[in-house]
Backbone:
């Protein structure tokens, strides 16, 4: 087991093509979400300046789903991106052993390219790392294993 659960979210502004963004979100998950009974959750919210936004979310908790997702993610990231993740692993891991990645929304929606970003307009990925013992060092070893 590499992860207890994974949550992938993306915010859609009114001017965004929500359908396209949802389709690309589902492409991150390398299996049929309907057949696997994984819901693409849509939540309407109010963002800054009272602007309406839609939050799309997929939550994975079955080991087969989380492992497939991580394998697919690592396979589709460029080597330089995986190196960057490993170099930044320490700062991407919180005290609860949640590991955070942000993928550039426009690169994914327009170019089908998984590219890390530090900016807000992105696909957010939170990976609850499975580490035994439940310690930071063990979690960092798991991250290394995922992105090797």
Residues:
């Amino acid at each position: 087991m590499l992860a207890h659960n994974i949550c992938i979210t993306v915010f859609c502004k009114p001017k965004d093509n929500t359908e396209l963004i949802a389709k690309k979100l589902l492409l991150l998950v390398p299996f049929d979400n309907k057949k696997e009974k994984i819901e693409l959750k849509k939540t309407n919210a109010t963002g800054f300046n009272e602007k309406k936004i839609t939050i799309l979310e997929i939550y994975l908790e079955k080991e087969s789903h989380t492992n497939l997702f991580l394998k697919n993610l690592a396979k589709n990231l460029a080597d330089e991106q995986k190196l960057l993740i490993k170099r930044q692993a320490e700062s991407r891991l919180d005290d609860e052993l949640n590991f955070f990645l942000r993928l550039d929304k426009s690169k994914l929606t327009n170019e089908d390219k998984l590219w890390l970003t530090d900016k807000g307009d992105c696909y957010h990925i939170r990976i609850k790392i499975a580490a035994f013992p439940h310690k930071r060092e063990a979690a960092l070893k798991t991250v290394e294993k995922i992105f090797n």
Remarks:
- Residues 3-146 form a domain with the 50s Ribosomal Protein L5; Chain: A, fold (CATH 3.30.1440.10).
- The chain has a mean pLDDT of 95.
- The first helix runs from residue 18 to 28.
- The chain has one domain: 3-146.
